[in-house]
Design brief:
This protein is an alpha+beta fold and 236 residues long. The protein has six helices and nine strands, in the order ββββαααβαββαββα. The radius of gyration is 18 Å and the shape is globular. Homohexameric ring arranged as a trimer of dimers.
Amino acid sequence: MRPSGRHLDEMRAVSIETGVMRHAEGSCLIKVGNTHVLCTASVEERTPPFLKNTGLGWVTAEYGMLPRATNTRNRREAAQGKQGGRTVEIQRLIGRSLRAGIDRSALGERQITVDCDVIQADGGTRCASITGGWVALRLAINTLMKTGAIKSDPMIGHVAAVSCGIYAGQPVLDLDYDEDSVAGVDGNFVMLDDGRLIEVQMSGETTVFGRSELGTMLDLAEKGMAGLVAAQKAAL
């Protein structure tokens, strides 16, 4: 039995509210159980220097957690003068994932920055950030298309992410903190809605896993992906 009482293949409740930030070209608040992330997408008519005169656009991301997003207060990274390694790793993952779902030549020479701010954390914050970040990006692209700044839709497909792992000896879908903190195996699957994989992060925390267990977790991830894409579509 999972601590939440969920079935092995059951996601937490997912909701996505759009238009929560007045000034951003795209924004949403995604809730995956008790994990809540505010996602905003901001358009800038410039690109990083290494893309100048290439005709290619850029999508990047920044990630952060509010001091009381967890059960104890974390000091703001700005107060420490630098980002932690975990923060840098997660925001790079978000950026890579969102870029995989966009045609950068159709975007044109502009940059969209997706900010993901964790308001409340209960496991799976990077996955929620990617899933909600895609919705914010989609809304920003819609804004550009409405104004005529871009002529063709650069979005290739839906991008979403979900965690899977081995808890109490069983492969499970969408780990919350109670499971994630003691999971034998922990992983994240980032996918397009056509089933293609963008990135897989898997690690044996206290045990190892075999090919059959990896296959089971991939099957779980595909099921979770279907529910996340449905939530994205409903929000839009």
